[in-house]
Amino acid sequence: MAVYALTGFSLISLLSFGYLSWDWMKPSLVADVAMDPMEKSLPPTFSRPPHIIFILTDDQGYHDVGYHGSDIQTPTLDRLAAEGVKLENYYIQPICTPSRSQLITGRYQIHTGLQHSIIRPRQPNCLPLDQITLPQKLQEAGYSTHMVGKWHLGFYKKECLPTRRGFNTFLGSLTGNVDYYTYDNCDGPGVCGYDLHEGEDVAWDQSGKYSTFLYTQRVSKILASHSPKDPIFIYVAFQAVHTPLQSPKEYIYRYRSMGNVARRKYAAMVTCMDEAVKNITWALKKYGYYDNSVIVFSTDNGGQTFSGGSNWPLRGRKGTYWEGGVRGIGFVHSPLIKRKRRTSWALVHITDWYPTLVNLARGNLSNVPGLDGYDVWPAISEGKESPRTEILHNIDPLYNHAKYGSLEDGFGIWNTAVQASIRVREWKLLTGDPGYSDWIPPQTLTNFPGSWWNLERLTDGLRKSVWLFNITADPYERYDLSDQRPDVVRTLLMRLVHYNRTAIPVRYPAENPRAHPDFNGGAWGPWASEDDVEEWEGIEEPLKSRNKKKKKCKICKLRSFFRKLNTRLMSNRI
């Protein structure tokens, strides 16, 4: 039987807050009131294809929205969700690239070769070019397509860029982590460069503008210059609220009483992003798009608990396959929804947006067979049953194998040392090392010595490599049933075996020094020639080098200072 050590919170206090029952997400907490994957519903009977605005936030924790009981103010998200459909059985991936790749392709990571880690700035890797992307399908359906924000799907050659993958316009960053004002990104000591791009060019002139403001202004500009008579798709991938924790001072001031500094800055960034969504919604109404629009809001992965985020009361954090890493905030707001103002418990995964949105656009899916996503619009709009009954969270053969896993523990059919996770109806199975497994309460309390957050830690079961949970009855993953239900474990292991047979080889090539920004005018961008491509693609990076921890880039700010100083001196000469 598992033994739990609680620091700062007792079991009684958890019960008193209602966090050990499923009712913690009941509507009263809100301020306002097995099918084939290719089996599609009939297109909705709209008079015109709807305008589609897809908003993706970065590292926003499950607890970090007002209607989940957060201490962070998100009045816009709360209102839009309350007036639309909240998705409370919605799943994403635990880190950046995987969620974005599955949104754009409608396919699991094992079917694109991106099942390990993220695409790093110096890797000759990107979203496979043979994949037909969501914006490409929408272009086929007559849509004008635009992307604003974070790409993080590779850029080592021009064919990988957003404007070559289906977007008419692009303003944003190509890498996964930039300064909110200077747009500098350091991928290790001395490996620093500028990363803000307009189309396929470096947007040097935009430096100094806070990214959340810049991206929101761009969305408004796109809407102002387009005709609402013609369908438009805008993918808004906010950098917020990924580190570094930076926010305009006026937003931080609102949380001045919050004792935890990281949480204070993080909260300010969330509220700033919330106001950005408000401004986007206002622009939709001002320029005549709103009445025929569908707004989808999604997070990309769980919150990073050591950087201000909170997934409470879910277990785990960003980068893990516990619910805190893969259960997302999601809702749909649209005048076109038939049954509004409700909470949906339909099982939905981020791959589902591809077929759902293409069908809404009256597009054609016949040339993209084998999608892992389902059309979930009837479940969202009409409250019908979701066509999805299972989710492959992932199978990562390159992740560090669990020390105590074995083929024997997997009934001779699966090596439980391999990191994998799958959800089938109410059951969830994890094997290998799922990642950091603690429950971390909201990080606003400061009256506990020795730590700025309070922790509930599992103190036994560390020698395990198999976990089984009834997620419907136990959404917080407190009661491992793998010993009591070996029959269910075996059944889900067989599903992993089935999926693994369809997996393609992992694409995780070694980093290449030619990607250094110093060889590209001081900016991150495409660097490989056509002759290089065959030599590098598909080469896996040695495990030893993958596991090396990168040192923090302490010279980035200094390099940025001298680069800007040099720019000013040159401009003065001109």
Automatic annotation (TrEMBL):
GO molecular function: metal ion binding; sulfuric ester hydrolase activity
Coiled-coil region: none
The organism's place on the tree of life at top rank: Eukaryota
PANTHER family: ARYLSULFATASE, ARYLSULFATASE I
Domain Sulfatase N-terminal: 50-361
Originating species: Bucorvus abyssinicus
Gene: Arsi
Statement: the UniProt record of this protein carries the keyword Ribosomal protein: no
Family indicated by similarity: Belongs to the sulfatase family.
Keyword field: Calcium, Glycoprotein, Hydrolase, Metal-binding
Listed name of the protein: ARSI Arylsulfatase
Record-linked PROSITE patterns: SULFATASE_1, SULFATASE_2
Names of required cofactors: Ca(2+)
Record carries keyword Nucleotide-binding: no
